Amino acid sequence: MRTTVSIDDALLKSAKARAENRGQTLGQYVEQAIRNEIAEPVTSRGALELPVFTRGTGMRADIDPSSNRDLFDALDASGDVA
Q1: Looking only at Cα atoms, what is the longest distance across the chain?
Q2: What is the CA 12 to chain-centroid distance, rounded?
Q3: DSSP result, 1-68
Q4: Per-residue pLDDT, 35
Q5: For residues 74 and 61, is the Cβ–Cβ distance under 8 A?
Q6: Are 63 and 74 in contact, with CB atoms under 8 Å apart?
Q7: Averaged in consecutive runs of 10 residues, what is the pLDDT profile of the chain (82 residues)?
Q8: Burial of 71 (0-12, 13-18, 19+ CB in 10 A)
Q9: 71 SS3 class
Q10: Nearest to 16 by CA among 5, 28, 1, 4
Q11: Model's pTM, two decimal places?
């Protein structure tokens, strides 16, 4: 079956080179790549576990959490800068 797909130019160039190295047409290479992808079992990632803040009482009253400057200044003052 013929179909048209849009592929990034650099990706297409790499796919053509790999197909040629394997002695395949681009269509054969793409078909095999799709077969390999479909053959992979779909696994669930499970529940995402987020870190929970459990110390202190929260944000200091003098820090505006919507202000990058306040947040960076607070980090600089605390010495906890990574």
Answers
A1: 67
A2: 21
A3: --------HHHHHHHHHHHHHTT--HHHHHHHHHHHHHHSPP----PPPPP---SSSSS-TT--TT-H
A4: 94
A5: no
A6: yes
A7: 90 96 96 92 80 76 87 80 52
A8: middle
A9: helix
A10: 28
A11: 0.49
Contact at 8 Å (CB) between 81 and 75?
yes
Amino acid occupying residue 81: V
Q: For residue 24, what are the contacts with CB-CB under 8 A and spacing of at least 6? A: 32
The token pair at 79 is: 């010495």
CB 65 within 8 A of CB 71: yes
The tokens describing 34, both together, are 């799709």
Residue tagged 């669930």 (tokens): 44
